[in-house]
Design a protein that fits this description.
Helices cover 32% and strands 22% of the residues. It has 415 residues and is α/β, with parallel strands linked by helices. The chain binds S-adenosylmethionine (SAM).
Length: 415
């Protein structure tokens, strides 16, 4: 063997080697991703090792400052007020004086929840008086930091799972900001004739110690691998002859159960997903040879998915059509979708930017930081290209309007 080929590219940490041995030496990519992100002791989120923010591992819209929450707050207030105005039906729904819940899944550092609480209390005190924050965070390491961040929160706040909420469902809004991209995905490879599941394999033969490598597993079977096969079909990939051998993509098998869980948590309300996503035709481009999965750490992106497991974020774009089909299957009714840039303009970003011009000299530094953050939020080559996708629970509470889908307010006269 060529010594260069046997170089230890992907040392497998002992905790993961132990898991892989117990699993027979290999696991699906989704299982690997789940361990690498969510293992309570060693996972990047499970241990709380990953830090969200410009000074951490990667930045997100809420981590750039409170402007994102301030712009989102009117949209949430509009939905909550519409829900509140509903006359209870004969099926025993809560009355309009009942508690409303703002449920955030995957709150990261807790920035969005904290800033939204402040914005809602300031702008809609009567509504806020009946509002609670519910944070859905499976990773204890992240939840510990959220507790600190929210220690002075002006709204009542609790942490619980969708399953716990389903026992006493809430009415309100579920927010999923950059969380569905962190759900484990499966990877499948087109070998030129058949689709195969990609495996993560423990290689114990290397002199340098256990190594990780990716390997194509057995061909997918329509019945035995129904969940994967259905998604291959849904993505229009059954007849894949046009694709080069080795073409790999990811399938979002964890999204459907997540949507069902979120649906069971609400008697009535709205779900807003904000995330990076591609239309199917762009996902399936011949040139997108390795899918969209990417690793992040210390503001650095890497295509090496086996690098230092438990130290890097692993994340994949959503597929818009798969998300919508999964949502419909869980009885979510689509309300509409928009790119973040357009959504934030509809919610008054231009007016906010204009208002910064009126800042007093002593506010200049803060105004400049705010200006930079606002421009980043709508950058069409960055956060502005994220998708805002809203759904409602069906039933007797039609949400009539959504500000983020409306025309931007007219310019002028604002400050
Ligand atoms: C990419 S971070 C996003 C953080 C935050 N929403 C933001 O945009 O700044 C993903 C967050 O989702 C959490 N998470 C991962 N899987 C989850 C799941 N199944 N349900 C809820 N949260 C999850 C992670 O622990 C982390 O807090």
């Amino acid at each position: 063997m060529n010594p260069a080929q046997s170089a230890p590219d992907h040392p497998c940490p002992p905790w993961l080697a132990q898991r892989l041995r117990a699993a027979g030496g290999s696991v699906s990519f989704a299982r690997y991703m789940d361990w690498a992100l969510h293992d309570p002791d060693h996972g990047a989120y499970g241990s709380g090792r990953l830090q969200v923010g410009p000074a951490g591992d990667f930045a997100t819209s809420p981590s750039l400052g409170s402007d994102f929450a301030a712009l989102l707050a009117p949209q949430l207030a509009q939905w909550l007020l519409q829900l509140d105005g509903v006359t209870p039906s004969s099926c025993g729904m809560e009355s309009s004086s009942g508690r409303l819940s703002l449920i955030e899944a995957g709150p990261g550092e807790g920035d969005l929840a904290a800033d939204l609480a402040v914005a809602l209390v300031a702008g809609w005190p009567e509504l806020a008086a009946r509002l609670e924050l519910v944070l859905v965070e499976p990773n204890a390491g992240m939840a510990a930091r959220q507790r600190q961040r929210l220690s002075g929160c002006p709204l009542p706040v609790r942490w619980c799972s969708f399953a716990e909420l389903a026992a006493a469902p809430a009415q309100g809004v579920v927010l999923a900001h950059e969380v569905l991209d962190a759900l484990p995905v499966e990877r499948v490879i087109w070998d030129g004739a058949l689709w195969r599941r990609q495996l993560v394999v423990l290689d114990e033969a290397a002199a340098a110690g256990p190594q990780l490598r990716l390997e194509a597993g057995a061909p997918l079977q329509p019945q035995a691998d129904a969940a994967l096969w259905n998604q291959v079909q849904q993505r229009g990939l059954i007849a894949a002859e046009r694709l080069p051998a080795g073409w790999t993509t990811e399938l979002h098998t964890a999204v459907a159960p997540w949507l069902a869980g979120a649906g069971a948590a609400l008697t009535r309300g709205v779900l807003l997903v904000v995330d990076y996503a591609l239309e199917n035709r762009r996902y399936n481009l011949e040139t997108r040879q390795g899918g969209t999965l990417i690793a992040y750490r210390h503001q650095q992106a890497s295509g090496d998915l086996l690098r230092e497991p438990g130290h890097w974020d692993l994340t994949a774009h959503l597929c818009l059509e798969t998300l919508e089909a999964d949502a419909l299957a869980s009885a979510w009714r689509p309300l509409g979708q928009r790119l973040q840039g357009e959504a934030l303009l509809a919610l008054g970003l231009a007016q906010r930017l204009y208002g910064l011009q009126q800042s007093r000299p002593e506010e200049l530094a803060a105004a400049l930081a705010s200006r930079e953050a606002l421009l980043r939020l709508v950058d069409p080559a960055g956060l502005g290209a994220f998708h805002w996708i809203a759904f409602a629970r069906p039933g007797d509470h039609p949400v009539q309007a959504s500000l983020f889908l409306s025309d931007p307010p007219a310019q002028g006269g604002c400050g």
